Each structure stands twice: as structure tokens, then as C-alpha cells.
Amino acid sequence: MSGHPILPSEPxxxxxxxxxxxVVFPGMxxxxxxxxxxxxxxxxxxxxxxxxxxxxxxxxxxxxEPRASDMFEIGCMASILQMSKLPDGNFKILLEGIQRASxxxxxxxxxxxxxxxxxxxxxxxxxxxxxxxxxxxxxxxxQFVKLSGKIPPEGLAAIAGxxxxxxxxxxxxxxxxxxxxxxxxxxxxxxVARRLEKLLELLDREVDTLQVADIAATTIGEHVTE
Length: 226
Description:
Blueprint: E1 12-19, E2 29-34, H1 37-48, E3 52-57, E4 74-85, E5 91-108, E6 113-119, H2 128-148, H3 154-160, H4 165-176, H5 180-187, H6 192-225
Parallel strand pairs: 1-3
Antiparallel strand pairs: 1-6, 2-5, 3-4, 4-5, 5-6
């Protein structure tokens, strides 16, 4: 996180940006390309009113003109860090997730979606069970980083420096770049313990898959050299 204030739990009206193929977590920084007219108008409204916007994943990425029923109810409030117009008329933006939020109502305002969002205050869970889960998740993530080769080693150092278990879970989830069907349920888990449990299940599956692939590749290599 970069110094954003913790938002109150009262409803707040924000422009809404539907997302295809991605779920944004609190603390996650991500570049996006935006081209749909509704989405561009939502960005403009956000830039005029504090740079905050509500991000919600679409249930089906292929829908070009999604309705309220085509989007999940739990998303992430975010801050627009950078925004630039591309030669083709689309926009490139850099967003940082701030806080989970539930969309209570969704409407249309001047050609773009507006959400009545209820921020979900982060839970501070620090019991022995949470600490045990935190340790297990960190160890599994370390294995995943070494096996996958997709995350630079410095990513581990950044994770190790996170003190809050909830922030740690979100930071790891963001780096895994999960499919929506795996990422959205994680976003919807407000309990830190349950989020860590689910994340551990996902990491176990990923590590097991990578280990099997590594063994298979090694076996093939041995046969080739014989």
C-alpha cells in the first residue's frame, strides 16, 4: 500500500469500471488498457473526482456491453495513478487497489456505470492459527517462485516484508495472476484465516502441478541422453 487512508465503511458513490479477465486485490498495482466508451467515460469521471474508481470483474469476459447482472458484487476500490491516451484512441492506465468493497447498487450516469459501494474494512487477525497459516502459505509461495520461474526473486523479499497477514495474502494472490474463477472467491473472503486457507489450497495445487511437470521434463531429458 502507498499511504492511502483506510476508507470508512459507509456507502460511497464511485464511477465503476468493469474488468475482463482480471481481479484486482487491495495493494495490487496493475496497468490496464481501456477502450470501451462506457469505461473511458467512467475514467474521466473518476479523474474529475479524486481519481478513485470501483473495479468489478465481469462474470463473462466476452460481454462488450455488460449489465449489472453480468458483474460480481464484490470488487476493489482503486486509485488511478497514471492515465495516458494512446494514438488509437484507447487509454492506458495504472491502477492501485485500495480496499475491498461490496456494490450495493449500480446505475448509469451520463453513459457510464456508477456504483454505490460499501468499503469492507480490513480485518486484523493475529491468532496462532493465522500465524501458522501465514507461515505455510509463505513457504508454499517460496516453492512456487522457485519452480515456476515466473516471479523474480525480489518478489519474495517484498512479500517477506509484509507484516499484516491479510495484506500478505492479497499480495501473494496478486502475484499469482489467477484466473477469475480462482481469484474472485479469494477477493470475496473477508476473513483473513479463510483467505489464507484458500490460498494455501491454490498454492498446493500449483506447486504439485509444477513438480509433476518438472519430473516429467527430467525423465524425458534422461531418455533423450541415453
